[in-house]
Design goal:
Blueprint: E1 11-16, H1 23-34, E2 39-42, H2 52-64, H3 71-85, E3 89-93, H4 99-115, E4 122-128, H5 131-143, H6 151-160, E5 170-175, H7 180-192
Parallel strand pairs: 1-3, 1-4, 2-3, 4-5
Helix pairs in contact: 1-7, 3-4
Length: 195
């Protein structure tokens, strides 16, 4: 039996790091380990912007007068809220370089959990990869037709990125060039203590 099925509360896992650090790969391996049925995977680069669900969301946001720059974020946030209500493991994979915005997002998650009368452990996974290696990976991905930030955006992320370990969060630091199986095992051990 999957120990993450029928949990008494949800868990939020926020995976942060530079573009090209290995966040998406790590998140995919964690999703396999936890089980797709018990996880809600969020990644702005993986949203199907052509889906009817997303189009309906945008229509509703436009009616509310929401800034189009926030549509994708709010789509993911709504998915996170559904995961909180369903006592799922919600994994959100993004660089998350701005601490103030990060704090506001986490506060909204906590408010949602309070409304659902549930506790909400939050685990932050920081995937550290040397900027040169991360940039090289992004360039390779773009050459193969994949996504990636512009050079200026990457530089801004690299300049702004710092650990949140000193800001009151439960943080696991993973080296982006380490063995993924070892990293996954480390994270699963910590998550097991939160169930």
């Amino acid at each position: 039996m999957n120990p993450y099925e029928n949990m008494n509360h949800p868990i939020i896992i926020l995976i942060r790091g530079l573009p090209g650090s290995g966040k998406s790969y790590l998140a995919a391996e964690l999703e396999k380990a936890f089980g797709k049925d018990v996880t809600v995977m969020l990644d702005p680069d993986a949203i199907n912007y052509e889906s009817q669900e997303y189009k309906d969301h945008v229509d509703a946001q436009i009616k509310e007068g929401v800034d189009p720059a926030l549509h994708a974020y709010r789509f993911s946030r709504n998915k996170a809220y559904q995961g909180i209500a369903g006592h799922k493991i919600v994994m959100w994979n993004q660089p998350f370089t701005n601490l103030e915005i990060f704090n506001k997002m986490v506060d909204r998650f906590k408010e949602q959990a309070e409304e659902q009368h549930t506790t909400l452990p939050i685990l932050v996974i920081e995937v550290n990869t040397p900027p040169e290696l991360a940039k090289q990976r992004v360039e390779q991905r773009k050459q193969q037709g994949g996504h990636g930030p512009s050079e200026n955006t990457f530089s801004r992320f690299a300049n702004d990125y710092k650990t949140f370990a000193n800001d009151g969060y439960d943080v696991i630091t993973i080296q982006g060039d380490d063995n993924t199986d070892t990293s996954v095992a480390t994270i699963i051990k910590r998550v097991a203590a939160l169930v």
